[in-house]
Amino acid sequence: MSLIANKRVLSGMRPTGQLHLGHYHGVLKNWVRLQHEYECFFFVADWHALTTSYEATGIISDSVFDIIVDWLSVGINPGEATIFVQSRVPEHAELHLLLSMITPISWLERVPTYKDQQEKLKERDLSTYGFLGYPLLQTADILIYKAGHVPVGEDQVAHIELSREIARRFNFLYGREPGFEEKAEAAVRKLGKRNAKLYEELRKRYQEEGDPEALARGRAFLDAQQNISLGDRERLLGYLEGGGKVILPEPQALLTPESKMPGLDGEKMSKSYNNTIALREAPDSVRTKLRTMPTDPARVRRTDPGDPAKCPVWKFHEIYSPPDVRQWVQEGCRSAGIGCLDCKQPVIDAVLTEQAPIRERSEEFLADPDTVRAIVDEGCEAARIAARETLEEVREVMNLSYRR
Ligand code: TRP
Ligand code: SF4
After folding, report:
1. What does the angle CA 158 – CA 268 – CA 122 come to, to the nearest 5 degrees?
2. Are residues 184 and 69 part of one domain?
3. Residue with the nearest Cα to atom 3 of ligand 2?
4. Residues 138-145: what's their mean pLDDT?
5. Could you tell which of 338, 340, 341, 342 is best to mutate to test the pocket of ligand 2, judged by most ligand atoms within 8 Å of the CB?
6. pLDDT grade, residue 404 (50/70/90)?
7. What is the H or E stretch that residue 202 is in?
8. Going by CA atoms, what residue is nearest to atom 4 of ligand 2?
9. What is the pTM of this model?
10. pLDDT at 5 over 70
11. Same domain for 92 and 216?
């Protein structure tokens, strides 16, 4: 293991239809940024889509390929990030099953999305075993890569919290390997005299005085050690923290700032509101959608003044226009100096400019599906290697290694 485990980032997206500009401004730009700083795993959560769409599965398979083309087209780089499909890494399912053994049903029932989504999607029967297990499957997705950070929106934070609780419970139950203290002491000695002394000091300060800075420094110290094995690293971490061996580290949510991308009606852009512009929507359709979008209702005639604060077009200017254009809108709208179509033109131009390179790249990928498939094959293989490594350890500590 050359890369430090907790610098790993993992996130997933359900394939439920075409991606739109809301996804781009909220999630995808963030992913593109993260891939330069972290070892990133991004995957298509097709099994998660199945929990709610089990009656109409066609949309899922259609979307998987499209979503990956979208990711690649916005600049998720397979040279930097591992891109894969959940169902092609069946190790997630095995970890999900094993974790289900130690997961109290009440923990799942009290995850807020469980009841919320059942209420919201009334037309579907979501009183299924699979849907109850949704956040546990997500937990397995995260823990199998020992991801330190999970970029998600506000609505997913409770799921990350569950995965922390499950990791803690798992480590508590199975982190007490026989002879843990002796093994930990041996690992301390392997650090070398000076480092062992530093580690012992920090451990003592945390254990005896509860000094959180000592804990933070101890963790950073272990992160920086190049020459210790993964097993020893986890023992030393567990020993520092006062528990047993940390087999599945607790992940942290990396909250994605809420996308400010408005929809065509001024509400949040979302497929369920039917107010979206697709990431690679045809230019003519983009023009039509923007030209016909509603404006301040006070501007019935061209000569009626309006108020940008009451107009969804203004929200687009806030995202796309530089200060001078915004000032032009403010003045022209309030004085009826400009018409609404004039006002929309810079937005139309900016959206088309933003989409042009994305559309261009997506056309290249669509014309060459074999390349896309090869990227996914490679990503799935890389993900499986990482996932298997964790699963081996999990089987080991659960005494399931005889199955080999
Ligand atoms: N539940 C997430 C969503 O709806 C998708 C997802 C599945 C996910 N597994 C994950 C996100 C693991 C982060 C990590 O958006
Ligand atoms: Fe909206 Fe612009 Fe028309 Fe004013 S001029 S109502 S901001 S579209």
Report:
1. 60
2. no
3. 340
4. 98
5. 340
6. low
7. helix 193-209
8. 333
9. 0.87
10. no
11. no
